[in-house]
Amino acid sequence: MPGTELRCGVSGGPDSLAMLALAVAAGCRATAVHVDHGLRPGSTVEAEVVAAAASRLGAAFRAERVRVAPGPNLEARARNARRAVLGEGAATGHTMDDQAETVLLNLLRGAAADGLAGMAPGPAHPVLGLRRAETHALCAELGLEVVRDPTNDDRRFLRNRVRHELLPLCSAVAGRDVVPVLARQAEVLRADVEVLEAMAGALDPTDGAALAGAPEALARRAVRRWLRADGPHPPDLAGVERVLGVARGERRATDVAPATRVRRTAGRLRAEPVACPDDARGGPAVR
Domain total for the chain? Predict the structure, then answer.
């Protein structure tokens, strides 16, 4: 809406620059925030490109710098560092093509329905309905200088292999562009997930009998919702299944990540922190 303040994560690429331009055109009080990870030579020049674009478009500008140490999972750690700097509710320039890539990546990771639902549309993803070709075309039409990130072509990163190899192969096999197909599937699954979440929210995960008697899909979701409060990530499927075993009386207790022990006492489940988790089997089984 006109007058709305909007922090935009702008790397200098065409997707985020197009988002910034559209935000200003919509009357938002936009601030372009550039985060420099310092991972490649010349990265400081990218901030200058973003600053120039923001000035031309009539947006505010802020530059941030974070340190990401070399090592495993570099892409994920850099992404997390950027999110931390941008803060909650910041807008990013993810497009429909990014959505399709995310769906396939989550499929490969076994992320189930929640992962296949992809990114949720809204203020944090305002250009999710646009194709990458459209954001590139808009920048060209406006004459905006864009940053070309060479790491987007680096096949060492899984997302790039999905982008340059898997998605084109899927389209070739299907005989059509599968990006809108995958995006539509994510939209449908997201609606299903919202219904399941609402139903699971009505189930008391500390009531052993109720949990044991509920449909397994709802019981699993209720357990994940409950234990997610103890850390940034819910337990994996194996951990959830062990907790359901506790609810059914098949074991007295189990340990799940992050460092949490779930016990059943007088029909009620309780979660407590544990310094040294039991073995991977999740605690003693009832004999």
Answer: 3
